[in-house]
C-alpha cells in the first residue's frame, strides 16, 4: 500500500500569485458576492471599456462594476477616458450606476471587498483622488488605500446597507436628471 504524500495547502499567499491571477481571483470573488446577495451578474468577455461586470438590480437597470485589486496598499487608477469624452459625460456616468469593486489583498488573510460608488469620486479626499493628465497617462481617478485612509475605506465595505444606500442615491440622481 502506497502512502500518499500530504500536499501542504496554504491559503491567502497572494505573493505567490501573478498580477493576472490576483485580478482574476478578485473578479470571481466579486461575482460570487453579488450572486450570494441575489443579483444577476453578467461578465464581460473583453475588458476594453473599463467594465468587468453588469449587476442587474431592477428590470432594465444595472450597476456597471469595474473590479480593482491591489496588494500592499498600492494606488489603483481609473482612467477617465473610459468614463466619457467630456467632463459632463464623466460626471453623468459616475452618477448613473458606475462603481468600483475594490479588493485589498494583504498576505495571509482573505481579501476585503469594498464597493465604491462612482459619484464619490466627484468629491476627492484622502482615499479617492483625481489627477490631471501628465506625460505618460491621461486624466484619471485613483484609490489610495493608505492606513491613514482606512477609516474612509471602511465605510465602503460591501454590506446590504451599503448597497441599499447606493441604489437609493442612484434613484435620486435618475429622478433629478429626468426632470
Structure description:
This is DUF4365 domain-containing protein. GO terms for molecular function: nucleic acid binding. This protein is an alpha+beta fold and 179 residues long. It has a single domain, classed as Trna Endonuclease, Chain: A, domain 1. Helix content is 28%, strand content 26%. It has four helices and eight strands, in the order αββββαββββαα. β2 and β3 form a beta hairpin. The chain is globular and about 75 Å long. The model has no long low-confidence stretch (mean pLDDT 91).
* Integer average pLDDT: 91
Residues in helix, %: 25-40%
If you consult CATH, what is the topology?
Trna Endonuclease, Chain: A, domain 1
Number of domains: 1
Protein name: DUF4365 domain-containing protein
InterPro entries: tRNA_endonuc-like_dom_sf (IPR011856)
Organism: Gimesia chilikensis
GO molecular function, one term: nucleic acid binding
Key words describing this protein structure:
179 residues, globular, alpha+beta, 28% helix, Trna Endonuclease, Chain: A, domain 1, three-stranded antiparallel sheet, 8 strands, single chain
Amino acid at each position: 500500500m502506497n502512502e500518499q504524500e500530504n500536499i501542504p495547502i496554504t491559503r491567502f499567499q497572494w505573493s505567490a500569485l501573478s498580477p493576472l491571477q490576483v485580478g482574476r481571483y478578485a473578479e470571481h470573488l466579486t461575482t460570487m458576492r453579488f450572486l450570494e446577495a441575489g443579483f444577476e451578474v453578467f461578465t464581460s468577455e473583453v475588458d476594453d471599456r473599463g467594465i468587468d461586470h453588469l449587476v442587474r438590480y431592477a428590470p432594465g437597470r444595472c450597476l456597471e462594476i469595474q473590479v480593482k485589486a491591489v496588494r500592499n496598499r498600492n494606488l489603483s487608477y481609473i482612467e477617465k477616458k473610459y468614463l466619457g469624452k467630456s467632463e459632463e459625460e464623466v460626471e453623468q456616468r459616475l452618477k448613473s450606476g458606475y462603481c468600483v469593486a475594490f479588493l485589498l489583498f494583504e498576505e495571509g488573510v482573505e481579501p476585503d471587498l469594498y464597493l465604491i460608488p462612482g459619484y464619490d469620486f466627484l468629491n476627492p479626499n484622502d482615499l479617492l483622488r483625481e489627477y490631471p493628465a501628465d506625460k505618460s497617462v491621461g486624466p484619471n481617478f485613483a484609490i489610495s488605500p493608505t492606513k491613514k485612509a482606512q477609516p474612509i475605506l471602511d465605510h465602503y465595505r460591501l454590506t446590504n446597507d451599503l448597497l441599499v444606500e447606493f441604489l437609493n442615491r442612484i434613484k435620486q440622481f435618475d429622478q433629478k436628471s429626468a426632470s
